[in-house]
Write the structure tokens for this entry.
Amino acid sequence: MFVLARLLPGDPVSAMLGDRATDATVDRLTAQLGLDQSIPVQLLQFLGGAVQGRFGDSIAYHIPVTQLIADRLPATLTLTGLSMVIALVLAVPLAFVAALQADRWPDLIIRGVFQVGLSTPIFYVGLLLLTVFAAWLGLFPVGGYGDTVLEHLWHLFLPALTLAFSFAAVLMRSLRGAILSVLNAEFVDFARAKGIRQRLILFRHVLRNALIATVSLIGLNVGSLLGGAVITESVFAVPGVGRLMVDSIFARDYPVIQALTLALAVLVSLAFLLTDIVQMALDPRVGR
Amino acid sequence: MSLTVRDLRVVFHTGRGLVWAVDGVDLDVGPGEVVGLVGESGSGKSVTLRAIARLLHSHADTTGQVRWRGQELLTLSEPAMEQIRGGQIGMVFQEPMAALNPVLSIGLQIDEVLVAHTDLDAKARRRRALELLDQVGIAAGAARLGQFAHEFSGGMRQRAMIAIALAANPQLLLADEPTTALDVTIQDQILRLLLRLKDELGMALLLVTHDLGVVAETCDRVAVMYAGRICETGTVRDVFRKPHHAYTQALLRAMPSENTGEDFDEHARLVPIPGMAPRLDAPSPGCAFTPRCTVTEPRCGVERPVLLVEGDRTSACYARDRL
């Protein structure tokens, strides 16, 4: 990532100063930013700073990178978190209906709708929702982030829904398959032989086992959810790290790109860790 | 009779057409009686058991009569059937590892039966669960209640499943090959346990098995099944001593004799049954055993022998008197 950003044609100095800057100005700014050093030396300098928690200042915004990211991260975390909740709320009941009605019309409709959702690009879904719910119906704001927590949630609902759509599709498909295979398990027949209620069998015996197979998928999808946030944040003008990333790449804002990449990598690893912990809680055969 | 099955038929709708898994089964189980349902794999014995408890999935069509203490089970509403399942009729499966839910504690799996079929409060249910574990020979019950199936040994798992099946004091226990997945010494322990509990609780037992040795050791009466039909029924003593169906005779000759515990010739050689189990997707008009039978006569393949009642025995074989 470090090298890749520097291999991109263009550099932050010309991006800042434009075409008409004198060579002397360019040289002075380049030296000031430490970009006159060789790439390996720059890398060592970056790593040396990173282990001490120093990531330098943003070239474009002139404020510390850590502060910049800390300002923008909550919006993205709320967005991905909210979209995950929406995806689960959509996927779990619909997966149940689809599995119990397998190959009958409710199943076909649910799978059809999600298939369309899965194959529609995120930005298109976003624009569609934006047009219908924000522009025409005026139920939601067109963009921005708001000031209070409630306003945040209200502003982020449409982008989260956009993001949730394809994730819900993946989740629904996987969960439907897992439920179908668990329904055929011997322990479901044994539970029926015990004469306990159908609802109890579904929620206690079936859902729990089906979720174990699906939880790892949720963790793996956090990465792509964050990737999707880049597009959604641009469409809905949400001031999150996704948009910051795009802006920084355009401005060749190396310190921000580097620190943000690191932060996202840590986030994805944390999501994996969380997945493992949830899996341990659901499945007594794991760990202990 | 407490359980009376008449003309029970189960047809499976599969991707490759219909399969007649159970094809007109009659069966009786009296109070406190142990009845063995024997047959080889694919003979329809397990399907019969599951059809009685109405556990078959929607791709199976079940017709006929299953009368349990004067009530017709096949037409009963699902909630009423739930009351009977696990309440009056308990069930034990073949593979405890597959039949116990891997992510729920054994205690919870016992408890949910008690919640469904008794009015006991949480404290009393826990006491009852401990008592059940003790009854089936699981020591240190209090610690075991919080454990999961994978923390139990094979024999202990089967004991736990029996405890679950007996939780609500059923009057009939349907046991589907309860010892097949266990090694021989454990098999014996489990069979003894089942017989002891049957006597203690005064329940009847319908035992599905492919093992004639198990039948000889445990059952009062036996029904022999082949290709979805009953070949013959009778007391274990009568059937083992003088089979009335060519298939039963062939089965007995294929079995080591010391297992029977009867006055069998110890030096007789084992005679395997030639051929393969019949296909159930195209039933023959005659007796299904004809292609593998050594005492067949011309009408066997074209005309199905009817089940003849003779005292407390029934049989469906033209060669009955020549066996």
Q: What stands out?
A: The mean pLDDT of chain A is 83. The CA atoms of residues 60 and 204 of chain A lie 54 Å apart.
